[in-house]
Amino acid sequence: MKQIVFFGLMLLSALSVAGQTQVVDSLEQVLETQKLTAEELLKVYDVLCEKSVYNDQERFRKYVAKGLALADKEKNKELVVKFTSALGIYYIHKSSYDTAIVHLEKALLLAEDINDKQKEADICGNLAGVYCNKGDLETGISYYHKSISILERNGLDKNLAIWYGNMGGRYRQLGEYNLAIKYLEKAEQLGIKNNDLNALAKAYSAFGNLYLEMEDMDKAMEYGLKSLKVSQEMNNKQGETYAYQVLINVSLTKEEYDEAEKYANECLRVSEEMNYARGMSMAWNALANIHLEKGRYKEAEMAAFKALETDSTNLYLSTGILAHISIANIFLGNKEKAVAYLHKSFAAKDEFNNNSVRESLMEMETKYETEKKELRITSLEKEQQLYVWLGIAGALLAIALGVALWQKGKNVRKEKQLIATSSVLDGEMKERTRLAQDLHDRLSGNLSAVKLELNNYAESLQSVCAKLDNCIEDIRNVAHDLMPTSLQYGMKVALEDFAAQFPNVAFHFFGKEKRIDKRTEFVVYCCASELVNNSIKHANAKNINLQLVQAEKHVSLTVQDDGCGFNEESVAKGFGLKSIRDRVASSNGKIDIDSAPGKGTETTIELRIKN
Description:
mainly alpha
């Protein structure tokens, strides 16, 4: 009789999500009234965790802990991985990101040990979410890539739609709208194919945020409502909070503050029901914004402090919360407090922008240490072959010495060539500067003087004056092309000024703006100018993204277009590529070109910054 009741409840747990609360209550009753085997208990704990993850965080935590302890005792490796990963998810919902990373990384190692590719991919996807919430989009997106790659390589599509959707959402945060749409469309198509409502809810809310940034309010509202409907159908309260955020922001943009307040209060209610810290923080932050718009400054300050108190670990969110506190205090007349929180907002923004480089270095260090340990283990296992390998090593050493001598000669020749190229480019920069100055100061000035003289002869010489105006303008343009005056204010200003000349060129800057040596700035500007002109003249690109990333020790320039593309080998000496390669080589930099006919072109240049 016990078995019939038990398996009946197992079947009940797989039915419509509308009855999830009843399922959980029924299974808890089974735990209280029946004596189950360890295997049966693990199945019950597993189902209870799945049914409470989006709705009741404390219940979820309780059964994750019970399941993990029993799975560990029974040496059930598959469920140890699952419950360890679930513990990491619990801490994500609590916004305890460092603790979440510890549990997820442990789960990832266990999943790799049992070669469970599905769990590996899911854990990588959750790690991606944690790092993105911490403000480290670079590491987060690398984990999304890893998750998607594992699933695609192994022909698995469970949860693939979710990671596509999350990837699209992160690219949207970076302003890479074409990439965002690409991944969100994949998520929607796969979600519809597999009837994956959870993935669809996430994709729809991400689409809503995307169209909000693209200022298409009707589309944004449409997708926000679709996300809310799907989330409510599957009783996914976390999904509801993301949908409400879209609806709040659309209403705020349309200045429909009563609607925005209604959605914010609903978001707060749902988040409190499931004890979801990030959802509560987002709702309080939205209410702070609404109170500011309605002139309720004291209420705005209180709501912002509530948001900060609930979750202060999310740098992306904290920047806005601190700014709301500052604005509220400006209107309340608390100048010192307003300034203090404005500085805190700037500091949070700087930390959000700088985290990616620091975390990337730590990740590379961890990876290196792991590989070193694996190499040591392999070496110990093969110690009996030591003498054989020593003989081989001796032979290889002799070959290596020969190669090293040949390489040394080659490097000397290459170094001489680089010095020559560098000298030519330095001369070019000085000559460009001199010519630009002479054209502007001397020739342009003389022509202006001639024009003043001619003005004395009135109408009969109007055509001559017009031609002189054109000539003066041409000289100014030539001088600017030779050495743009905006470059004296730095790369960022110069490239912004350059991009503004073209309606289809979008400029993005990441990092901390800081002046570097003039020669490197000149090389970056010349390469950007050449690449953008190539995209316009030769590739017929409709949209061009010009991106500059400035870190502590290097600067990276990326030019991406949606033009006709090309075969790199066939045009190695065309499109001005040789000139660009020479400039990059002279600065000991690296260049990477990714292009194919009909696929557009992406060129990335990285130069080290001289101390």
